[in-house]
Amino acid sequence: MSSASGAPSPERFFMITNAFQQSGIIKGALELDVFTAIAEGNTTIPALATRCQASERGLRILCDTLTVMGFLTKTASTYGLAADSAAFLNRQSPAYLGGVLEFLQAPMMMAAFQDVAAVVRKGGTVVSEEGTVSPENPIWVKFARAMMPLMMLPAQGMANAIQVDAQRPVKLLDIAAGHGIFGISFAQRNANLEVTALDWAAVLEVAQENAQKFGVAERYQLLPGSAFEVEFGTGYDLVLLTNFLHHFDVETNTALLRKVHAALAEGGRVITLEFVPNDDRVSPPMHALFAVVMLASTANGDAYTFAEYDQMFGQAGFAKNELLELPPAFRVIVSHK
């Protein structure tokens, strides 16, 4: 909290305390389609007011604020898109991420942080007994519909990094498949690969839609239910565990991993995409900060280190675990039966 001169400064405190205003500003700009409107050539306030059906005064203040925040550029009275905004906030961009707010700012996710002191006193979520991992929680349908664009990059990175034998049939089990893009990416890369997607039935409807969209529906099977209760079957060459284990405690994860181990063919592998902080638990920031999300939104979840995952997989019978770094900031654990 030091200023440029090195003296103590309250600037960081006020920036964090008012962060809710900034997230509200982005949400409002997306709802008004400001970024898409500018990409279409509406670069002045009168033009934006017509396109966005909003007041000139409101748009002037909003666009100036977005410029200060780094999302827009301004030359004289003309606005433009910053590079990140052009890539991710223009609705016409294939990398558009505006939809993720449907999940990240869902009422349940927002409520999880309304009383952090109570969360810390309890040591887990106070929104309900199980938080976001309650059975058939509708928030995961929001997740499946909103988060696929954000997960496209790591999904394709995983499919490229994990080599499979393209000369024979390959069975893949995608646990907590959500939007399905991880299993779909593997199926797109290998014409002999068949996916079994496991999740709640309502969530799997989204995954099925995406399998159809990306041309792999004929090799995409659905297995509705809880990963802790349904029978997986056997003979899988690959099992995907993407952003799932962090929701649960070590004992629950270890029990699930024993079940996964039994479902794998000899020589099979588990591919786990996770937030994996370093042993110091404060770096890198994206991974380390995820622990508090689990504290606030689940009863027992956490962001586990690689050493902790190595122990969980080892206790479940896996012979070897490797940590892979996927650009730009994703971490993948490859576990061998």
Helix and strand arrangement:
Layout: H1 11-17, H2 19-32, H3 34-39, H4 45-52, H5 56-68, E1 72-75, E2 78-81, H6 83-88, H7 101-104, H8 107-111, H9 116-122, H10 139-146, H11 148-161, E3 170-175, H12 181-189, E4 193-199, H13 201-213, E5 220-224, E6 236-242, H14 250-263, E7 264-274, H15 285-288, H16 290-297, H17 306-315, E8 320-326, E9 330-336
Parallel strand pairs: 3-4, 3-6, 4-5, 6-7
Antiparallel strand pairs: 1-2, 7-9, 8-9
Helix pairs in contact: 10-13, 11-12, 14-17
Q: Would you give an account of this structure?
A:
The strands form two sheets. Strands 5-4-3-6-7-9-8 form a seven-stranded mixed β-sheet, sandwiched between helices. Strands 1-2 form a two-stranded antiparallel ribbon. 45% of the residues lie in helices and 17% in strands. β4 (193-199), α13 (201-213) and β5 (220-224) form a beta-alpha-beta unit. By secondary structure, the protein is an alpha/beta fold. The mean pLDDT is 96. It has two domains: 11-96, Winged helix-like DNA-binding domain superfamily/Winged helix DNA-binding domain (Arc Repressor Mutant, subunit A), CATH 1.10.10; 125-336, Rossmann fold. It has helices at 11-17, 19-32, 34-39, 45-52, 56-68, 83-88, 101-104, 107-111, 116-122, 139-146, 148-161, 181-189, 201-213, 250-263, 285-288, 290-297, 306-315; strands spanning 72-75, 78-81, 170-175, 193-199, 220-224, 236-242, 264-274, 320-326, 330-336. α14 packs across α17.
